[in-house]
């Protein structure tokens, strides 16, 4: 589905900000949320990704030099990987890069599409709110589940999931605000190279 201004090479295009909209407090709040989410997710992706690569490299070198791998090199990636994944999920949600079925909205006019998209966003918010609460509850119960070498509790992985769900909620709230104030044209449009289209 093509939308106006799809041809522009604007880095903000995927956030839905290329759609002209009247200034307003809610839209400025949505733009601010997008900036914060983008900064947090990119930072977490960069730090955890580099740490995972560094650990893998160090473990391979240790195997060749010392004949055995690093004892902690198995545990740390298990604790870092959830942060890497949930940051990617939140960034994908913000950019509209997750799988979507567009058959239902296409059956309606502009107002109907807007209503369907807003309802879909509210379902995403509700689902992620449930994930966030349950992950936080399980995380609070898993302080005693310690890794054998470093003694790290499994709780951090659950807290990463809860934090990722919170970021998806915030990203979806920003999208919902734009959908309500602007209309269906405000949906984020992912870059084709990011979605494999």
UniProtKB/TrEMBL annotation:
It is found in: Cell inner membrane. One of its GO terms (biological process) is C4-dicarboxylate transport. The keyword Membrane applies. Its main location: membrane. Residues 53-181 form the Tripartite ATP-independent periplasmic transporters DctQ component domain. Residues 1-20 are annotated as: Disordered. GO terms for cellular component: plasma membrane. Residues 1-16 have a biased composition (Basic and acidic residues). The keyword tRNA-binding does not apply. It is a multi-pass membrane protein. InterPro entries: DctQ (IPR055348), TRAP_DctQ (IPR007387). Keywords: Cell inner membrane, Cell membrane, Membrane, Transmembrane, Transmembrane helix, Transport. It comes from the Bacteria. The chain crosses the membrane at residues 35-60, 116-138, 158-180. It holds the Pfam family DctQ. GO terms for molecular function: transmembrane transporter activity. Belongs to the TRAP transporter small permease family. The complex comprises the extracytoplasmic solute receptor protein and the two transmembrane proteins. Part of the tripartite ATP-independent periplasmic (TRAP) transport system. This is TRAP transporter small permease protein.
């Amino acid at each position: 589905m093509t939308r106006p201004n799809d041809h522009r090479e604007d880095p903000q295009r995927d956030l839905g900000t290329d759609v002209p909209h009247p200034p307003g407090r809610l839209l400025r709040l949505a733009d601010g949320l997008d900036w914060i989410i983008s900064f947090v997710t990119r930072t977490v992706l960069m730090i955890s990704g580099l740490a995972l690569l560094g650990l893998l490299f160090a473990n391979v070198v240790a195997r060749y030099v010392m004949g055995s791998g690093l004892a902690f090199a198995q545990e740390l990636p298990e604790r870092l990987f959830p942060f890497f994944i949930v940051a990617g999920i939140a960034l994908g949600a913000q950019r509209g890069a997750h799988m979507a079925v567009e058959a239902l909205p296409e059956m309606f006019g502009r107002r109907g599409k807007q209503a369907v998209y807003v309802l879909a966003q509210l379902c995403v918010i509700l689902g992620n709110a449930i994930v966030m609460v349950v992950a936080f509850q399980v995380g609070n119960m898993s302080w005693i589940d310690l890794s054998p070498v470093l003694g790290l509790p499994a709780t951090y992985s659950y807290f990463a999931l809860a934090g990722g769900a919170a970021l998806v909620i915030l990203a979806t709230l920003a999208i919902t605000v734009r959908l309500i104030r602007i209309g269906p044209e405000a949906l984020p449009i992912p870059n084709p190279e990011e979605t494999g289209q």
